[in-house]
Amino acid sequence: MTTTFDFSGRTALVTGAASGLGLAMVRAFVGAGAKVVLFDLDEDSVRAATDTLNADHPGRVTALAGSVTDPAAASAACEAAVDFGGRLDVVMNNAGISGNAPSLELDEATWRRAIDVNLSGAFFVAQAAGRVMAEQGGGGIVNTASMYGVVAAPERAAYCAAKAGVVALTKVLAIEWADRNIRVNAIAPGYVRTALTETLAIQGRLDLGALNARVPAGRLGTPEEIAAASLFLASDTSSYVTGQTLVADGGWSSYSYL
Length: 258
Ligand SMILES: NC(=O)c1ccc[n+]([C@@H]2O[C@H](COP(=O)([O-])OP(=O)(O)OC[C@H]3O[C@@H](n4cnc5c(N)ncnc54)[C@H](O)[C@@H]3O)[C@@H](O)[C@H]2O)c1
Hints:
The protein is built from eight helices and seven strands. It is of the alpha/beta class. The chain has one domain (11-192, 224-247): NAD(P)-binding Rossmann-like Domain (Rossmann fold), CATH 3.40.50.720. It has a seven-stranded parallel β-sheet with strand order 3-2-1-4-5-6-7, sandwiched between helices. The longest helix has 29 residues, at 108-136. Nicotinamide-adenine-dinucleotide is lined by residues 15-16, 18-22, 40-42, 67-69, 94-97, 117, 121, 144, 146, 189, 191-192, 194, 196-197.
């Protein structure tokens, strides 16, 4: 997918960059001319993705392994971007996990992990990025929320609560940092066709036919479509947009189902 956005001379940090939406965001930023730091918990995958991208775009990407739940690692990732590209212009705060279970059976560890990665991790990365961006005179942060931070579904208590928290966090940071020229927005994807959804479908845990029928658009989204909407929020084209959550869900959350 081609976009009209130009990120030449800019440096982006993408978390959860080794697969799915994060990797599509990396590809979109590289395609738009940026240098990109890929940050992910999965060291082997993030290095493999970086090697592949560097073969086509020498010197444009680099990898760092770590967890967004560790504030020191979040700071190190932001510093790595400054070392790599001289600045930290954009952060795609994208790392996330699910952790679905019926609420009567949801165990403490699963609850804490989902909140820790999806919400606390998003804050630690945004805080580290905000410190760098405030110092350099501005920047843009795009948090990956979910349509399940805006509407709800059963058996997703921790995920929905965490992603709704990301939507609220986005507003707070946006109003705190607007006078420092830092914009903070969120992208809220609906169901997206990734390796994860494909695997769940093959295992019979996700009914793709039923999902397609439920989405007004009649299909799941693609990682490239989510990346393109994220690029808009990170780009100068959206220069007066801050504190917003852009729901990219093919109409799912607008449709009050029969
Ligand atoms: N796929 C969808 O349908 C969908 C829909 C709505 C929202 N989202 C959100 O989009 C984001 C990306 O999801 P995806 O579908 O691409 O998932 P994915 O599992 O393909 O990718 C997530 C990546 O995050 C990494 N990660 C996990 N925990 C981490 C941590 N603590 N620190 C650093 N990296 C970590 C994983 O290693 C993985 O590479 C998540 O925030 C998810 O909640 C996805």
